[in-house]
Amino acid sequence: MAGFEALLRWDHPKLGRLGPAEFIPIAEETGGIVDLGIFALERTARELAAWQHALNVDPPIFASVNVSSRQLLRHDLLHDVKAVLTRCDVARGTLKLELTESLVMENPEYAAQMLGRIHELGAGLSLDDFGTGYSSLSYLQRFPFDTIKIDRSFVHQNNKGARPVILRSIITLAHDLGMEVVAEGTETESDAIELAQLGCEYAQG
Q: CA 138, CA 141: separation in Å to the nearest integer?
């Protein structure tokens, strides 16, 4: 066990447990996503700090939190991250912010500048769902991501039992750029073993 991804669920008093697809779009529309994002970041950092103090492992475990466009495109994200890292004693780079390709490409110049400053504060940066968007490889070199998460569509075996040929190329590309790799959609031990043989540092299922 190397780390975790923090995912929001809403325990609604009448409707029961709701997944993010049912309330995140509404939060995005109303602006409530900003407060939700701060809550997720703070809560995750506190849990992570407690785990790191309780577990003497090297490297220390990490936790990832998804970031929305509303959060990234408002200047206070930098302040929010700094405040959380000041309050919560987590190892440098282990509280990771996850962003999608489409999000950083909304405003790549601004995103590159903002992510650089967040990286300097000591937060980790993870590029989520890599391969599903439209990012330019020249831009990829400019963003200070330390981790690439390969979308499950590039990880799953086809009907002949083989993995997509491009998977090995993506892993090599990530390593050439100095990034670690998380393969999403890993569901079996044989998946994990094969992905490790391809050079994947982490598997998420």
A: 6
